[in-house]
Amino acid sequence: MWTPSFGLLQLSAYLEAEGVSVQIIDGTTLREPWKELRERIVSSKADVIGITCTATCLSPEAIQTIHLSRRLSPRSILVGGGSHFTLMAKTILEEIPDLDYIVLGEGEIAFLQLLKSLSNGRDGREVRGIAYREDGRVILNERQPLITPLDALPLPAYHLIDVESEAYYWHGMGRRAFGVSTSRGCGDHCAYCSETKFWEGVWRGRSGKKVVEEISFLHRKYGKSLFVFNENTFNWSRKRLEEFLEELGKSGLRIHFWFQSRVKDILRDEDLLPEMKRLGLYEVMLGIESIQPDVLQRYEKDQSRELAEKAIDLLRRNGIMVMANVMFGDWNDSEANLKEIFRFVKKKSDFLVLTITTPLPGTKYFEEAERLGRIREKDFGKYDFMHPVMDTKFLSAREVERLQKAYLKKYYTQPRILLGAFFNPNPFKRMAYRLILRYVWENATKRPWRQPNWKDKRQEE
């Protein structure tokens, strides 16, 4: 599923409320993205162009956009933002002279203050939360304080995007589906998680009332009734969850939704599961990651196989589907580990998300892997959790990838899934299994997606 950039939607709404004229360009929604992006950069005559990089694997495209913007709109001030640029700010500014500034972390206050400074003829260097170059050195100013409460922010600027764009519906859930984000960060400190570093290890969420107001707006305005909460853990706060359920019940909205959660939060909220199911919860993605104690310890993830099993059983007893999110490829992982977790999720879960352990820049996990010389892949475009980046103690990176593909194929060619695409009585399982069959077909016919009009910066030059 591709979603709009929640960061840009919220940032744009905040800037508009302060009188700033804003456009959002989501290249994934364009028929010929790089061709149309060129045209829009030229026609916008923008004073400032902001380029977000929300994930490490998207950094080649973000950097290409910076170079393109500098060449086509040389007078514009270029500002980078998002998790990758924040965590790699020093390196990015050292290596990319076309970029003028980076906004560090949460963007609303820092970016607005930067714009005000520039419009008043200053250079913005006094603004907290900004990184820049000075006399050949990169300066990282102290970050802005985090915004609290998030209810102080306006409704995201959905009017600035094409909500009905086909790009947002390839995921097989239909046009009634839409992704939203109602919280920021996570209070856990998993070693591999860039979100922990970006949001400073703090969880904040809109109130339950505001969440229901937002999905009610999307339902009235655009007919959305299936919501995917794209955030680290929707039910971090029990108080907020209780308020959300109360407000959703009072609203009379008939919706369906799913979210990602920590194992420990599902166990804590056992008594609320029947009400969540009644009000439309049909699936939970559980961050299991591993069932090996030594691997979980290296991930600094405070849970166990026993707790994961208990959480899965609770969800399934309440008629809620379980998507098990697992990572494979830690230094201590072996094929035997993968076989064991495969048997576990095959028996317990409805869906398997099997990703490859990836050391994201800026994280504790990356720093250790780099220090120990374990990283084999330097192309950040492949840091997408589907390409191997490291060897393990027992397996080469190539063997990790081979096993990941083999076990995904083994899981999703089970008869219950192949037949379930047509005959499963649960409509949500039929929907998901049909999407899986589409992926199996595309993989079998070897027709991988190619990015239209893509030319790397060397070709551009």
Q: What's this model, at a glance?
A:
The chain is built from 19 helices and 13 strands.
How would you sum up this structure, described in words?
The structure is a single chain. The chain is an alpha/beta fold and 461 residues long. The protein folds into 3 domains: 6-140, Rossmann fold; 173-411, Aldolase class I (TIM Barrel); 413-450, no CATH class. It has 19 helices and 13 strands. The strands form 3 sheets. A 6-stranded parallel sheet has the order 6-9-10-11-12-13. The chain has a 5-stranded mixed sheet with strand order 1-2-3-4-5, sandwiched between helices. Helix 14 links the parallel strand 12 and strand 13 (351-356). Helix 8 runs parallel beside helix 9 (238-251) and helix 14 (335-348) packs parallel to helix 16. It starts with 5 loop residues before the first helix and ends with a helix.
